[in-house]
Structure formats: C-alpha cells, structure tokens
C-alpha cells in the first residue's frame, strides 16, 4: 500500500476509535492533538502529532508547543518527546498515532515525575495594568457623538418621517422648476 492509503486507513481508524473522546482533537486530516490526563490536572499535557507526506515510512512530527503545556518546563517536554521518539523508531513503517497516544497515557506518571509547574515570569497584575490604558482611550472616542443645534434638529425632523427616514424622492430635482427657468433664459 502507498503512504496515502495507509494514512487514509489510519485516519478512519482514529476517527472511529476516538469518536466522542473529549481528549482527542483532529486539527486537520494529518494533524492530531491528544490531552493526556484530566482537565485541571496539574500533570496533564497535550501531545500534537503531525504526519509527513511519506508517513508511516518516515516518522511523524511530535510537538508539545501547545499553549496548554505552558506550565511544563522545556526539559520535561524534551524528555517526553524523546521517549515518544524511541517508540516511533520501534513502530516505524506501521500506523503509530494511536500507539503513541496510548503509550503516553500508560506512562504519564513516569513522564511527569520531574514536573514542577512553571509559573509565568510576568505577574498577571502587570498584564492587566498594561491592557487597561489601551482600552480606555477607545471608549472615550466611542462616547463622543455629533452635537446638533436646536435649529438643525428641527430642520432634520421636518425632513424625516416618524421613523427618522427621509421621504421618497427628497433629493429629486424638480423638473417643472428647471423647465420654467430654462425657457425664460432662452427668450
């Protein structure tokens, strides 16, 4: 079988296996994400596997750069990817996406044994204080409305109907007036 046929078969199998599984997400027909661990679990992580054109004869691209993994240190991420790469070498030439996800689920505790949650270097309060000034000026601009005088308002009210719309033909040229003035000029 060709690589495309293998990929189509594996894609169909993955869709049927993970149907209804909230941890699995198909980003595209050749890219998948799987969350290892429950939502809210500090040791949960997200694996993204993308197939190359010649997959499964060549290894897939394994990534842990998802935003979900921002609390995991880069050393732990690298060790998880390295262990998954070892599993890729063993399974090269066969459909392995399901195998890799299951391997990660089975070895979650071992993968995350050295995990110490990384906190953001920027405190949240500074992010909020930076964003607040940016939103304030735009709201002032939106609040400023065009002010009309009483005479302008009255004139506008006289032109419009009760719905505030101008009547049909309000800007039409009066043909009768033009024909009368045109004939006087011709004399």
What does this structure look like?
With 187 residues, the chain is α+β, with helices and mostly antiparallel strands. The chain has a domain at 3-112: Ubiquitin Conjugating Enzyme. It has seven helices and four strands, in the order H-E-E-E-E-H-H-H-H-H-H. The protein has helices at 3-17, 74-91, 97-106, 108-111, 124-143, 150-159, 175-186; strands spanning 24-28, 31-36, 45-50, 61-63. A hairpin with a 2-residue loop joins strand 1 (24-28) and strand 2 (31-36). Mean pLDDT is 76; it is low at 121-140. It holds the Pfam family RWD. Residues 9-111 form the RWD domain.
CATH architectural type of the domain at 3-112:
Roll
Mean pLDDT rating: 76
Provide a count of the helices.
7
Helix content: 40-55%
Low-confidence stretches: 121-140
Tell me about the largest β-sheet: 4 strands, antiparallel
- The top level CATH class name of the domain at 3-112: Alpha Beta
Number of strands: 4
The helix-and-strand class reads alpha+beta
3D shape = elongated
H/E element order: HEEEEHHHHHH
Report the CATH topology name of the domain at 3-112. Ubiquitin Conjugating Enzyme
> Which value, in Å, is the CA radius of gyration?
33 Å
- Report how far the terminal alpha carbons are from each other: 95 Å
Strand order of the largest sheet: 1-2-3-4
Q: Tell me the strand percentage band.
A: 5-15%
CATH superfamily annotation of the domain at 3-112: Ubiquitin Conjugating Enzyme
